[in-house]
Amino acid sequence: MLIGIDPILNADVLYALRAMGHGDDLIICDTNFPADSVARQTVLGEVLRMDHPAAEVVRAVLSVYPIDTFVDDAAARMEVVGEPDTLMPVMEEVQAQITVVQGPKMIGVERYAFYERAKQAYAVIQTGERRFYGCFALRKGVIPPEAA
C-alpha cells in the first residue's frame, strides 16, 4: 500500500503508466476482449490485469494518468456492432469517470478499427468487467511543470 495511490493499481500497471509518454494509448478492456493476443502486439508486449469492473479501473487509472487534450480521439469506446450510437451502461459509467477529471466525451470506434488501435497501443489492461462492450482507449496527455 502507498499513500495517495489507489490500492487497485498494482505494480505492473503503475510501471506501465509511468513508462508511457505523451500520445501513447492505453487500452482498458473487458474479459471477452482478445487481450492476450492483442497485448502481444503492443509496445509493452504483455497483458496487464486488474480484476475489477471497468469504471473502477478507469477511476483508479485516471487518478494518476492525464488524458491528452491535443487530439479529438483521446478517449474512445468500442461501438456496439450494428448500433454505433448505442451507449451501454458500462460506457456511461466510464464516461462519468472521464468527466470527473474534465476529460472529453468518448468517441465511438468500430469494433475491428478498435482492435487495430489496440494493437498499436502502449499497453492493454484487461479488467474483470463481464458486461459486453467494456472496451476503451485512453491517450496519455502531459502534466505541466507547475502540477508536478
From TrEMBL:
<dbReference type="GO" id="GO:0036373">
    <property type="term" value="F:L-fucose mutarotase activity"/>
</dbReference>
<dbReference type="InterPro" id="IPR023750">
    <property type="entry name" value="RbsD-like_sf"/>
</dbReference>
<dbReference type="InterPro" id="IPR050443">
    <property type="entry name" value="RbsD/FucU_mutarotase"/>
</dbReference>
<dbReference type="Pfam" id="PF05025">
    <property type="entry name" value="RbsD_FucU"/>
</dbReference>
<protein>
    <submittedName>
        <fullName>L-fucose mutarotase</fullName>
        <ecNumber>5.1.3.29</ecNumber>
    </submittedName>
</protein>
<dbReference type="InterPro" id="IPR007721">
    <property type="entry name" value="RbsD_FucU"/>
</dbReference>
<keyword id="KW-0413">Isomerase</keyword>
